[in-house]
Amino acid sequence: MNRPMLIPDGVLTHVDYTCKRRYTADVVVVGTGAGGAAAGAELAEAGHDVLFVEEGSYIPQSSFNPHLEHSMPRLYRDTGTTMIFGNPTIPYVEGRAVGGSTTINGGMCWRPPTRVMDDWARETGDTSLGAEGMDWYFSRVEERINAKPQPSYSIGPDNRVMSRGARKLGWEYRENHRNQDQCVGTNNCGFGCPTGAKQSTLLSYMPRAMGAGAQCLTEIRVERLLIEGGRCVGVAGRTYDPRTRRPSHEVEVRGRAVVIACGAIQTPYLLLRHRVARRSRQLGKNLLLHPNVKITGLFPFDIGGWAGVSQGGQVREFHEEGIVLAENFIPPGAMGTHLPHHGSRAWELMTRYKQMVVGGALVEDSTSGRVLRGPFGMPLPWYQVTKGDHARFKKGARLLSELFFSVGADAVLLPFSNAHLARSMAEVDRILLGQTRRKWLELFTVHLMGTARMGAREDRSVIDLDGCIWDLPGCYVADASVFPTAIGVNPQVTIMAMATRIGLRLAETLQGEHRAAVA
Amino acid sequence: MTTEAASRPGTDPPRPPRVPPSFWGDARRVPVDRFPEAAPFPMPASVHAALEAIIRAVTPPPPAPQVPPDRIAMILRRFMPYFLRPMAYGFCAGVVMLDAAPVWRTGRLKRLQDLPRGEASELLELLAHSSFGPVQQLALMFRGAILSMYFDQPEVHAALEFNPEAWMRSRIRLRRRLLDGGKPRKSDHIPEPQWPDAQASAR
Ligand SMILES: Cc1cc2nc3c(=O)[nH]c(=O)nc-3n(C[C@H](O)[C@H](O)[C@H](O)COP(=O)(O)OP(=O)(O)OC[C@H]3O[C@@H](n4cnc5c(N)ncnc54)[C@H](O)[C@@H]3O)c2cc1C
Ligand code: SF4
Question: Which range marks the domain in which residue A461 is found?
Answer without folding.
Answer: 11-84+92-111+190-287+448-518
